[in-house]
């Protein structure tokens, strides 16, 4: 039996032999099926020799097949006997300890299972100087996090808990919070438990889907103003946002709505295509997207250090607002990025129903990290925008100086002649040293009013007038519990910190103290004024994605128009509970 098996194996593995048999068989078949050549071929010595060889090989193959059939028949009987003994042994073991076979892991033997190979898009393994090697990189946490954690290098993925909320789901990078390392596999899909909700992904992360949102609930008590209407105490839902995001290879998308100020609005609603260009990660985005403008102004409301953004972000704002419907392009390097955007008004504008053209805005922002180490880094940034404003009845602007629970207290100029266009720009300087950080921002916005305004009901003396408003902000802070400041170096903005001693693990959470001073001067604008504010704050991070905030702000303002003309000052104590999922 061994010799027969060896001979048959040799026949199957001998490529030359198989080729010879095939050639001979085809040759004989051709001769037989063509009678006109049969008689001539019968007298050809080469044909006669081929005929003899084919007959001999056919006889040998027939004998080998007969022997193989006998071998396989005997093997079936042996296998059946072996399986019978194994079944008896398994039954005895099963009686002692039941075992359930999962159909997903152990399909019936008769079903052929082919596992498809999924290929994701060109995910770039973006690393920053100072990051740990890939094997121990905090970019990919171990399956079981050990607390307390250790502070990570500033700007590294180990220093933050997740990417900023305004980012696309696919950026070529992936950071996770320590509590998100628990995952479940169901039917070939992976459920990654993160900030309160699971993310459903394929094993290779080529496809993903998750819900996202934030809840920011504020209370503020204002006092000290010489105008009683400004001394109010009230609550407000700063944001109640719910949305979904996902990706299919390089294509990602976000859709979310928000309920705040007693209004329901569409916020992020865009899709992004990620790719590579000259070995750099790039993003192409279409839809309604949050703008990049200044350090604080490029950060979502759930990730700023204080209850509200600094005065550079709040004052030097285009007419269209924080969001815009249009297109954006970003390119990223190891220590820099450039973001451009062209957009009109956001999707909630009244332009559609009024059949009015959009305010068209061109924006650019860039940042660069010239130096970094295991303990510190320096960030330099610049931004700017130009806007072509649609015709309107008038123009006015009010800059909130206290928390959002007191909208009445602010710097106001206008109403005046409609705005024709404006151009703004600013610079950023950000630094980290251990658990401490500091930000300096300056910006200016030059505005030009319209030369003509048909049907103008206001005084025409400001026709064609121009003016510039300037704003400056300095803020600093430190984590008392040793966390690395919550800075996302990939895009140069705030993110959520990685708490070293979370409350859910029996720790004290993350404690941060901060202070800020803001200044604005708009006196060169018709009816413009000036103001300054000082704020101190304490943040308690129970988890990386849940915190309590306490702010005290003192503001001093001089208005030339509005309901509260003249010099004035006021104070407010604000509290916020915030969770981002």
UniProtKB/TrEMBL annotation:
Alphabetized Pfam families for the sequence: Porin_O_P (PF07396)
Protein name per the record: Phosphate-specific outer membrane porin OprP
Protein's UniProt keywords contain Signal: yes
Record InterPro entries: Porin_dom_sf, Porin_O/P
Signal peptide boundaries: 1-40
Keyword set, alphabetical order: Coiled coil, Signal
Lineage of the organism: Bacteria, Pseudomonadati, Pseudomonadota, Alphaproteobacteria, Acetobacterales
Keyword Coiled coil (UniProt): yes
Coiled-coil stretches noted in the UniProt entry, renumbered to this chain: 47-74
């Amino acid at each position: 039996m061994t010799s027969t098996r060896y001979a048959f194996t040799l026949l199957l593995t001998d490529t030359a032999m198989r080729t010879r048999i095939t050639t001979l068989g085809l040759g004989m078949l051709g001769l037989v099926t063509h009678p006109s050549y049969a008689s001539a071929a019968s007298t050809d010595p080469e044909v006669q020799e081929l005929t003899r060889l084919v007959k001999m090989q056919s006889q040998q193959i027939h004998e080998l097949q007969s022997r193989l059939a006998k071998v396989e028949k005997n093997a079936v009987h042996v296998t059946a006997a072996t399986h019978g003994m194994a079944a008896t042994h398994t039954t005895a073991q099963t009686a002692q300890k039941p075992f359930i076979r999962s159909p997903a892991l152990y399909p019936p033997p008769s079903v052929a299972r082919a596992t498809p190979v999924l290929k994701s898009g060109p995910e770039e393994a973006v690393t920053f100087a100072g990051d740990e090697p890939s094997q121990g990189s905090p970019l990919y946490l171990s399956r079981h996090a050990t607390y307390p954690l250790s502070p990570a290098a500033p700007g590294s993925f180990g220093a933050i808990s997740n990417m900023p909320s305004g980012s696309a789901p696919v950026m070529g990078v992936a950071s996770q919070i320590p509590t998100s390392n628990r995952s479940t596999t169901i039917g070939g899909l992976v459920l990654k438990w993160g900030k309160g909700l699971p993310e459903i992904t394929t094993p290779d992360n080529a496809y993903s889907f998750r819900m996202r949102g934030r809840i920011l609930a504020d209370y503020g008590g204002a006092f000290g103003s010489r105008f009683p209407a400004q001394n109010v105490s009230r609550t407000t839902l700063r944001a109640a946002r719910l949305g979904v995001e996902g990706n299919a290879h390089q294509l990602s998308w976000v859709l979310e709505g928000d309920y705040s100020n007693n209004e329901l609005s569409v916020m992020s609603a865009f899709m992004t295509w990620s790719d590579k260009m000259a070995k750099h990660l790039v993003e192409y985005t279409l839809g309604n997207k949050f703008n990049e403008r200044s350090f604080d102004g490029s950060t979502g409301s759930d990730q700023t250090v204080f209850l509200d953004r600094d005065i550079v972000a709040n004052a030097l704002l285009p007419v269209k607002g924080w969001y815009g419907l249009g297109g954006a392009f970003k390119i990223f390097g190891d220590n820099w990025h450039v973001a451009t955007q062209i957009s009109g008004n956001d999707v909630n504008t009244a332009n559609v129903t009024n059949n009015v053209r959009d305010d068209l805005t061109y924006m650019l922002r860039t940042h660069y990290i010239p130096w970094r180490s295991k303990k510190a880094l320096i960030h330099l940034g610049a931004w700017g925008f130009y806007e072509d404003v649609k015709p309107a009845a008038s123009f006015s602007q009010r800059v909130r100086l206290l928390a959002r629970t007191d909208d009445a207290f602010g710097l106001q100029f206008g109403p005046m002649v409609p705005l024709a266009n404006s151009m703004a720009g600013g610079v950023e300087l950000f630094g980290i040293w251990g658990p401490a950080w500091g930000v300096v921002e300056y910006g200016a916005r030059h505005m030009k009013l319209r030369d003509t305004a048909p049907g103008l009901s206001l005084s025409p003396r400001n026709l064609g007038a121009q003016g510039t408003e300037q704003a400056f902000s300095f803020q600093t802070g430190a984590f008392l519990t040793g966390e690395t400041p919550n800075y996302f170096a990939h895009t140069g903005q705030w993110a959520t910190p990685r708490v070293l001693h979370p409350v859910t693990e029996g720790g004290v959470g993350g404690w941060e103290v901060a202070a800020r001073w803001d200044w604005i001067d708009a006196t060169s604008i018709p009816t413009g004024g000036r103001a300054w504010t000082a704020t101190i704050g304490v943040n308690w991070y129970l988890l990386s994605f849940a915190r309590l905030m306490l702010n005290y702000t003192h503001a001093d303002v001089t208005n030339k128009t509005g309901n509260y003309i003249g010099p004035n000052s006021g104070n407010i104590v604000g509290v916020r509970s915030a969770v981002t999922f």
